[in-house]
Amino acid sequence: MDKETQRAHHDMGGVAKFMCETVDIEPHGLDDFDREVDALRQLLSAKQLMSVDELRRGIEAIPEGEYHRLSYYRRWMRSIADTLLRRGVITEAELRAALEGA
Amino acid sequence: MFVAGETVRVKDSWPEAAGPVHIRTPHYVRGVVGEVVRFLGDYPNPEDLAFARPAERRGLYHVRFRRGALWPEGRAEDDVLIEIFEHWLERP
Fold first, then answer.
1. In chain A, how many domains are there?
2. Is the separation of the CB atoms in A92 and A85 below 8 Å?
3. Which residues of B touch A (CB under 8 A)?
4. Looking at the domain B7-90, which fold is it?
């Protein structure tokens, strides 16, 4: 089995298919959602509820199809929610109630 | 412990096949021989930090790979510099 087959889907450095695909190198501005997610992550880190390493692990755990559909900060948000649920910082009921109230 | 100038090989190890992991060693350098450029210090192992487990401090190194050793494209004199933790390195 070659390395490209064995790799995890997020481990994309040096993958041959990107030689044939246009890579988006345009600068992207931050919107309010992006800033809010970034602020949330910093607060969670300051309160020692979640580390940046846990954020990365959570992003890497997003299933491949969804990973490519989500924007950069939506991946962060997905990872933050998964990690806080896993750690028991929030419950599924609390998350659902907050989303329905939004 | 490795010293600058030493030849090392990245372990041809694939823990991602066995379940959820967080690995900072890119797939394309596994099993490839490179050269230690410098020791960067000891840092808590991110493979444990990622799961909020107690993390031992591990040595981190800059390792240089000849681009030809990684991919057929590019000029032979090009190289790639990667940060790799000690537990991923072995003496060939």
1. 1
2. yes
3. 14, 16-17, 20, 22-23, 26-28, 30-31, 46, 49-52, 70-71, 73
4. SH3 type barrels. (2.30.30)
DSSP assignment of chain B: ---TT-EEEE----GGGGS-----S-GGGTT-EEEEEEEEEEEE-HHHHTTT----EEEEEEEEEEHHHH-SSS-TT-EEEEEEEGGGEE--
- List of chain B residues whose C-beta atoms are within 8 Å of the C-beta of residue A4: 27
| Cα separation, B2 vs B89, whole angstroms | 9
| pLDDT above 70 for B53 | yes
Give the whole-angstrom CA distance, residue B1 versus residue B3: 7
The whole-angstrom separation of Cα A99 and Cα A96 is: 5
CA of A101, closest CA in chain B: separation in Å?
31
- Interface pTM (ipTM) of the complex? 0.88
Task: Name the pTM for this structure.
Answer: 0.89
